[in-house]
Design brief:
With 135 residues, the protein is α/β, with parallel strands linked by helices. It contains 4 helices and 5 strands; from the N terminus they run βαβαβαββα. It has a single domain, classed as 3-Layer(aba) Sandwich (Rossmann fold), CATH 3.40.50.
């Protein structure tokens, strides 16, 4: 068991698909991968909305409770204000971060630059588990 993880992802079709793959791996009784604990940010509310402060407070609590943070990088993740805020919050809380690009050509979110981030170089069970064990 690798502890509790906060999964940061853009809640579009691609991000949700890969987040669900992680959840599926975590529930597979034949693999001892990890507990996934995350706040699903697919809420349809802008980070600048009037509800954003409450949502940020709840997400920050989830990040604080986690042992590590995974950032799933899809085609449009770099433009997600929520993902960038979650990564900045994780860094403020001194949480280890593992970044995973679904496709190596996808743009990296700015919040991951100049940070101590461990990378999984492919979206495979083995690559992700290795990256998580190294942080």
């Amino acid at each position: 068991m690798l502890g509790k993880l906060f999964v940061s992802y853009r809640a579009d079709n691609e991000g949700s698909l890969y987040k669900n793959l992680l959840v599926g791996w975590s529930k597979n009784p034949n693999k001892n991968f990890f507990d996934v604990k995350f706040e699903d940010t697919s809420i349809g509310i802008s980070i600048n909305s009037t509800n954003a402060n409450y949502i940020k407070q709840r997400i920050k609590e989830k990040i604080k409770e986690s042992n590590k943070v995974i950032c799933i990088i899809g085609e449009n993740t770099h433009s997600s204000d929520w993902v960038n805020w979650e990564i900045e919050t994780a860094k403020e809380l001194n949480k280890p971060i593992v970044a995973i690009k679904i496709n190596k050509f996808y743009e990296t979110p700015l919040s991951l630059y100049n940070k101590n981030v461990n990378w999984a170089y492919s979206f495979t069970y083995e690559s992700i588990k290795k990256a998580l064990l190294e942080v």
